[in-house]
Amino acid sequence: MTVDRGRAVALFGEELTWIVDRLQARLERGQPLHGRLRLAHPTDAQREAVERLTGRRPTTAGSVSVEVADLERILAHAGIAPDLRSLVETLRGPVLDRPAAAAAEQRRWRLVHDRLRTDAEDVDPTLVAWADELATTGLLRRLAGDAEVAAQLGDQALEVLRRLPADAVPLPQLAATSLGDSHALDDGTSLSTLVLRGIESVTGLPRRDRRAAERRALWARVGVLLDELSAPVLVAGLRPSGDGLLATTLREHADAGEPCRITLRLLVRHPADWTSLRRQRVLVCENPTVAAAVTDRCGPATPPLVCTDGQPSGSVQTLLGQLVDAGVVLDFHADFDGGGVRIGNLLIDRFGATPWRMGRTAYEEAATSASRPLGAVPPEASWDPELSAAIIARGRAVHEEQLLDELVTELMRDRWITPG
C-alpha cells in the first residue's frame, strides 16, 4: 500500500497540520510513534477537524487529542497511508535524523578544531592554547556559524599570525599581503577578533574584552600600526638610551625642559631603549595641564612623566607596555571622577600601576574646595573601594587642574626634585 498523496494533502490541511508537525518532530528526535498527540486551546475549526477524523462526538474541552495508534489505523483503513512515517515523508519529505545529524556536525567541528590545533602548533607552539580556547569557549563556532567557514577563518588567522611580529607594518598592508584584502582585518571583523586572541596568546597578555584603544595597542605590540599618526602620547622628562630618532628626540626635549608628543608610528618604527629607566618610577597623569605645570616649575629636572590626555589611547598604552616590559615602575594620578577612576582601574589591571595621592583621604581633603558637580557615577576603584563611595556621597568631582600647585609641590618633594 502506498500513500494516497492527494487525499493525504486534503485531509491534513490547515486545521490538522499540527498533527503532522508533532509526528515529524518525534521522528526527527528518534522517538517512537506511540502515545497521544495533544493540542491545547484549539480553534473551533481545529476541534471540528479532529472530531471528523476520529468520529468522536463534539466536546467543549480545553484541548483536543488523538491516539497515535488510532490515527494509524484510521489512515490504513481509509487507504490513505500504510503507516505514519510514510505519511510524514510524503507530506514533508525525508525525515531528518536529528541525533545523527547533530553527531555528524560535532564530528565536522571536531575535525576543524583538531586541524587548527595541529596547524597552530606548526606556526608557534604558544598558539596551541589559542586553538584550544577557540574550541572550549565555542568562539570560533559563534564567529563562523558553519564548520566550512570556520576552517577558512582558522586558515586565514594563522596566515596572519605566521607573519607576526611585523616591522612597523600598517594593518591594511598586513591584510593585503597576507589575505589579498586590505579590509580583511578591519576592526570588529571575525578575523581580526581571532588574530587578536592569537596575539594575546603569543605575547602572554591577559585575556579580556578590549576597547578600541587597547586593540590598537595590542596590534602595535607585534609591530602592526593602526591609526599610527592619531592620538599621540604626551610625555616629559623621559631619557631613554639609544641613538634612534625617538630616543634622541625625547632626550632633547627632556634636556630643554619641554614636553613632547610622540606618535604610535615613532614608538613602533623607531623604538627606544627603555632599559636605562629600569626600576625608575614614572608618573602617569591624566591632564596635559599637569605636564605643562611640572615642566614650567622643574625645567630639565622634570621627573619622567606620561600623560594619558583622557582615557589612554593606543599610543599611550603602547608606550606604557614598553616601559613596563623594560622594568619601569608606574605611579598614576587622575581626576577624582568617573573617568579618572576608570583610568586608574585600567592602569592597575593592564600595567600594574600604583596609585599616587589617589585614595579616599586625598579626595576628601581636596573636595572641600571643589566646585564641580559630579557627572557620571564612578565605578568602584579597584585600589580603594572607599574612594568611589566618598565621591558618590559628596557628589563632587575634583579635577587635576584644581590641584596643580599641590600636585607639583608634592611631586617635587616625593621625588627630591630641584626646580630647574
From TrEMBL:
Residues 34-240 form the Conserved hypothetical protein CHP02679 N terminus domain. Coiled coil: none annotated. This is TIGR02679 family protein. It comes from the Bacteria. It comes from Egicoccus halophilus. Residues 261-411 form the DUF2399 domain.
